[in-house]
UniProtKB/TrEMBL annotation, chains A, B:
Provenance organism: Mangrovicoccus algicola
Domain of life: Bacteria
Ranges where the HTH tetR-type domain occurs: 12-72
Claim: Cell membrane is one of the keywords in the record: no
GO molecular function annotation: DNA-binding transcription factor activity; transcription cis-regulatory region binding
Full protein name: TetR family transcriptional regulator C-terminal domain-containing protein
UniProt key word Transcription regulation: yes
Keywords from the named record: DNA-binding, Repressor, Transcription, Transcription regulation
InterPro entries: BetI_C, DNA-bd_HTH_TetR-type_CS, Homeodomain-like_sf, HTH-type_TetR-like_transc_reg, HTH_TetR, Tet_transcr_reg_TetR-rel_C_sf
Database matches in Pfam families: TetR_C_6, TetR_N
Start-end of DNA-binding region: 35-54
Amino acid sequence: MTRRSYQRLGEDARRNALLEATLDCLAEDGMGGASVRKIAERAGVSAGLIRHYFSSKDEMIHEAYAYLMGQLTGAAADSAHAASEGASQALAHFIAANVMQPNLSSRKVSLWATFIGRVRAGARYAEIHRDSYREFLDLLEALIHPVLVQHGRPAAPAACHGHAIALNGLIDGLWLEGSLGHGLYDPARLPVIALTAAEGILRLPDGTLVRAIAP
Amino acid sequence: MTRRSYQRLGEDARRNALLEATLDCLAEDGMGGASVRKIAERAGVSAGLIRHYFSSKDEMIHEAYAYLMGQLTGAAADSAHAASEGASQALAHFIAANVMQPNLSSRKVSLWATFIGRVRAGARYAEIHRDSYREFLDLLEALIHPVLVQHGRPAAPAACHGHAIALNGLIDGLWLEGSLGHGLYDPARLPVIALTAAEGILRLPDGTLVRAIAP
DNA sequence: GCCACTATTATACGTTTGTATAGTAATGCT
DNA sequence: AGCATTACTATACAAACGTATAATAGTGGC
């Protein structure tokens, strides 16, 4: 009996490789098609290995969701904290980044939607979703507040919160629909559409955000 | 051997019962848990029946998606064509209806997301999605145009189209996030948040849409 | 080079899955 | 009531599934 040769990997590296493989299989085959054997094959390991890292398939999928959302919120936080020339530019960059590559991504949307489809029925999914949604809202509030102050708009916490909810909704919706390659319009239009809409939502002077990132 | 007694149903009625059962199982158990046996049980028939109506499980799921989107777009069209006192009220009602019950529904969102998760990898899913997305955009454009004209805003087709994309994004995002019971805010706030944001996106005078549906 | 540790492979098992098909009971017509 | 039609049940099958476990080869330390 000839055993396949293999290379050992540290615990973190192997674990992350399995989570990445899980996400790859979910993006391609959905929840119904991502079997343990497929995930193992994608990760380049045998199916028996998975039990050494996760106590069940369910746990591995939950962890994959947490891992994905950690990546998405991490990238959003980096974007929010990036160097910029003022509050308007920071907000504009944040919004635009969400409706452009690499965030505008059918893979990311497919994964996000696949997990959202389970939020209603699974407490762990719901918890991960709520935490990341809260984090996105908080990031947006922090970006919106100084912009409102700068333009003399009402900037009380409640107003900022409402704006953050609306802006997050706009970004989510455009990101979702814009990533799916439907061919109904050129996704390159989305940054301007998003920024123009955001100016309206925040009652900013026309061009405040669009001009903040234009050449 | 005692066979279970049963009642015959006409082809359309039985078929729709199966599609409803499919959606119920998908909403509860996801793509990975909705087996043919579960769906049959939910529909109150034996598993062998399904082959008499659908040539495969895959086909049944695709048909369920088309059926769901038919319901959602049908309801949207009804809402768009409902009697109203003017263009602003029609648009306001349409927007508000999308972020309130019965549309604000974790079941609907779970189903929608579950299928969206498959759009990237499945041509049939992508086709159904594109057709319904186009229909929503068209409905919105038709609602937006007279409102812009009424308020002397630029109302060329390209402008309407861009506004429809933005508004649809806003509605989708708020509907999605607002349906999931995260407890971060009261979903009863969403109609006002959505309408206020829509006024901004369309550059309408403050209160145009909010006041159109307030008591 | 030797050895201990352990990451990994291969295999097994019981259950579940989607698909296939023969048989029969419900129902409408005469 | 009798009969033909057919919607539906029950069962079977091969494959796939998630889970479990014994064995072994890779690797670092000495």
